[in-house]
Amino acid sequence: MEAVVSVLVALSSICLLNRDITTYAAPAEIGDSQWKLIERSGWCARPPKDRATFAGAAPFIIIHHSYKPGMALSESDCQLAMQQIQDFHMDERHWSDIGYSFAICGDGNVYEGRGANVVAAHAPHYNNRSIGLLLIGDFTEALPPSSMLEVALDFIQFSVDCGFLREDYILYGHRQVRNGTICPGDALYAAIQKWPHWQEDVEDIAYL
Ligand SMILES: [Zn+2]
């Protein structure tokens, strides 16, 4: 009996989420793959210049690739990639913070960008009702390694379990909701069309 209780406690702690300060219980080990959720302090993120939140579980998740920087494999290279993306978004594009909500990196971990329930800058009209999920690398011609794809799928389920993505979420590739981009790359875009909840038709956002 004691063993059963301790297992239940361990499972429930996976999704501990404090919405005020956005902390997650980590490492997360769900599904078939094991990954850590590396919070902003773990990749030495700069503080945001501004920050707005939205309430409730997001109805959409939108998949991106970084194109540049390319694939990173070690934890230190992944931290550097996150810093480079944040610097580019804040210093060149003059955004308040890194544009994406979360990123999957080639070290097999998930990196917190703006985080859950924070208005992001990755897809106009969807920034206050979506998770912007980045896969770090150029996936125009080659797919991410299968381990990265598994972590992405695990993380999507984790987001539902934690209550920051709706159970009946809709998944899009960036190119579906933004003209003039080929993001998330042809290879990755072909792959996500087989993922749960991918939808070909784009909802008329005005009526949501
Ligand atoms: Zn994109």
UniProtKB/TrEMBL annotation:
Keyword Protease: no
Any GO BP annotation: innate immune response
SMART domains assigned: Ami_2, PGRP
Domain N-acetylmuramoyl-L-alanine amidase: 46-185
Cleaved signal peptide residues: 1-25
A Pfam entry, by short name: Amidase_2
InterPro entries in the record: Amidase/PGRP_sf, Amidase_domain, Peptidoglycan_recognition, PGRP, PGRP_domain_met/bac
Gene Ontology, cellular component aspect: extracellular region
Gene3D superfamilies recorded: Peptidoglycan recognition protein-like
Chain ranges of the Peptidoglycan recognition protein family domain: 35-178
Cell division among keywords: no
An example molecular function term from Gene Ontology annotations: N-acetylmuramoyl-L-alanine amidase activity
Keyword field: Disulfide bond, Immunity, Innate immunity, Signal
Protein family membership: Belongs to the N-acetylmuramoyl-L-alanine amidase 2 family.
PANTHER family xref list: PEPTIDOGLYCAN RECOGNITION PROTEIN, PEPTIDOGLYCAN-RECOGNITION PROTEIN LB
Name the record gives this protein: Peptidoglycan-recognition protein
Taxonomic source organism: Bactrocera dorsalis (Oriental fruit fly)
Gene giving rise to this polypeptide: LOC105231696
